[in-house]
Amino acid sequence: MTPQGMGKTRYLPPLRRSLAAVSLLALLAGCQATPSDALHGTGDLGVVVERATGSLAVVDTSERRILERVEGLGDLSHASVKFSRDARYALVFGRDGGLTRVDLLTGEITHRVMQSGNSIGGAISQDGSLVAVANYEPGGVRIFDSATLAPVADIPATYRDEHGETVRSKVVGLVDAPQNRFVFSLFEAGEIRMIDMNGETPEVTRFPDIGDSPYDALIGPDGRYYIAGLFGEDGLALLDLWHPEAGVTRILPDYGRGEARLPVYKMPHLEGWAMAGDEAWLPAVGRHEVLVADTDDWSLVGRIPVHGQPVFVMSRPDERQVWVNFAHPDNDVVQVIDTETREVIRTLSPGEAVLHMEFTPKGEHAWVSARDSDRITVYDTRTFEVLAELDSESPSGIFFTDRAHRIGL
Hints:
With 409 residues, the protein is mostly beta strands. It has one helix spanning 14-29; strands at residues 2-3, 45-50, 55-60, 65-70, 80-83, 89-93, 98-103, 108-114, 118-124, 130-137, 140-145, 151-156, 158-160, 166-168, 171-177, 181-186, 191-196, 203-207, 214-219, 225-230, 236-240, 248-251, 274-276, 279-283, 289-294, 299-305, 310-315, 321-326, 334-338, 343-348, 354-359, 365-370, 375-380, 386-391, 395-400.
């Protein structure tokens, strides 16, 4: 961990600021500081993944500053982050199979394990006690105690291939679901599986034959619907977690590669779908469009022309705006859509290779990472004024601690 002084003003990490303030007050008042004076919440903290250096930038969203850096996290290409139930610890899922627990208040790594050779994200259980990791190599899900990273369960993603051999599949789209369950998809096997962690041993339920090559998935904000995208064919696979006995159904049959009119530069992230009211806003595949679907019957009800091929389509917390970033070569722009008029109301230029966006918990600000400009830009979402620009080496994913209390994030 290396303390950093980013931006134009020197600053101290939150805990150290509090301690410094306590010391000054104690000196001025000639009295002893009480332990409670040193306490600091984590509700306005977050992290930015710096993939080139394998580090996390710990940020304060109230002061709009980088507080310090945590280094030594391995390969963070396509890394993701979840937060502990108390929002103090960040669980970092590295691409090299590393799972790391970072204390946001001290900037220290408390635990780190190399749990596989190649992983692709993870999830925290509903009660916060377990952390699950999706693995490519070896294919499967491994579950750990979220406080100690001690192993709890190892669930291989085995299936029989076309030759009758038992082999392992890559795991994608792992999410947490209500009732202490995890749900994920198997890329080669074409399955969705659900793990129930309420008993003495994990109970696994299989949903086979969901479609060709599920490559990513999402769960809705209320935790009811799990939706997997299919790389090998059009359409999406939906599992209703209120009624898993009904099995998987197919929705949006025209959604996918088959309707592409342009080369597909990047398959959009399903986690980047936006839910606004009773509508889902989703990136079209290989088209310069954002699609709008009615979540009652999953019919397509709108197409909105945009700047390029969308990657993330993210809703501001009040659902009045949707922010969109784009795949190469149009990835230097972010567009904002008014969800009431369905019109693009602003085009922003935060830098080269915009990879991710994150709203503050109530949506007054949006943070945007521009990898090739080595910059994070903070926007006022009402005026679109640039409030801050922060230096960061190859920033990618941005994650704020309010995710700790939201399903699927």
